[in-house]
Amino acid sequence: MSSRTAIEQRERPVLVVKGLTRAYRSGARMLNVLRGVDLSIKAGEIVGLVGPSGSGKSSLLHAAGLLERPTGGDVLIDGRDCLKLADRERTRVRRAKVGFVYQFHHLLPEFSALENVALPCMIAGASGRDARAEARRLLTQMGLAERLDHQPAQLSGGEQQRVAIARAIVNKPCVLLADEPTGNLDPRTSAHVFEALMDLVRHEGVAALVATHNLELTR
Ligand code: ADP
Ligand code: MG
């Protein structure tokens, strides 16, 4: 790839949301949570989604990540208009192109940090050797080279979240969605995890949308 093409690749938006609406029925009334959201995120770019609890951050992430159908609007991932796809194809796009991180790490307790990150890669078809090599690379990038063999219970909260972030991007998604990934951490640890997340997003060239109610971190 020429450097010019590489730059064009980077400038292309990978996650585009257009006129997204989401209404929930509440008794006889409709609750309009998302009222026409537009956003566009390029590779290597990180966008913070800030709002108080109940403002619709998770609703937006779930729709953008193809986990739930919104009431209206469009979601384009890597140039594909995803809401027009049949369910099975949409699920395929989600698995291949979107990584998720939640407030709780959801790591498998019986497995080491390395295994937790390598597993999704093996499930996607990589050999154990390649999957472990990629997991080691990402965990090292996240500052966890000395924690590869620790089980989740042997890691601090911030370390657990860094493992969860590495796991979310091990299959090279083009979009990373994080729903209050530092919500359970103290402010100092939050800042560290956030920095590691930003480095990784830039380094791996993923487009990230990160929900948080912490305005400090977004700045
Ligand atoms: P946030 O993540 O910013 O806290 P959410 O997207 O979870 O906000 O929720 C936004 C609003 O939508 C809240 O008022 C919530 O009660 C409502 N809501 C979320 N999911 C549902 C649902 N499945 N049914 C009805 N109301 C919902
Ligand atoms: Mg939420």
Describe the structure in your own words.
The protein is α/β, with parallel strands linked by helices and 219 residues long. 40% of the residues lie in helices and 26% in strands. The chain has helices at 3-11, 57-64, 87-97, 113-123, 128-141, 157-169, 187-204, 215-218; strands at residues 13-26, 29-42, 46-50, 72-77, 80-81, 98-101, 175-179, 207-212. The strands form two sheets. Strands 2-1-4-5 form a four-stranded antiparallel beta sheet, covered by helices on one side. Helix 4 crosses helix 5 (128-141). It is globular, with a radius of gyration of 18 Å. The structure holds adenosine-5'-diphosphate and magnesium ion. Adenosine-5'-diphosphate is lined by residues 24, 31, 33, 51, 53-59. Magnesium ion binds next to helix 2.
Protein topology:
Elements lengths: L2 H9 L1 E14 L2 E14 L3 E5 L6 H8 L7 E6 L2 E2 L5 H11 E4 L11 H11 L4 H14 L15 H13 L5 E5 L7 H18 L2 E6 L2 H4 L1
Helix pairs in contact: 4-5, 4-6, 6-7
The protein binds adenosine-5'-diphosphate and magnesium ion.
The site of adenosine-5'-diphosphate (ADP) has 11 residues, from strand 2 and helix 2.
Number of strands: 8
How confident is the prediction overall: mean pLDDT?
92
Radius of gyration: 18 Å
H and E string: HEEEHEEHEHHHEHEH
Number of helices: 8
**Strand order in the largest sheet:** 2-1-4-5
Question: Which compounds are bound in this model?
Answer: adenosine-5'-diphosphate, magnesium ion
Largest sheet: 4 strands, antiparallel
The low-pLDDT segments are: none
Which structural class fits the helix and strand makeup?
A: alpha/beta
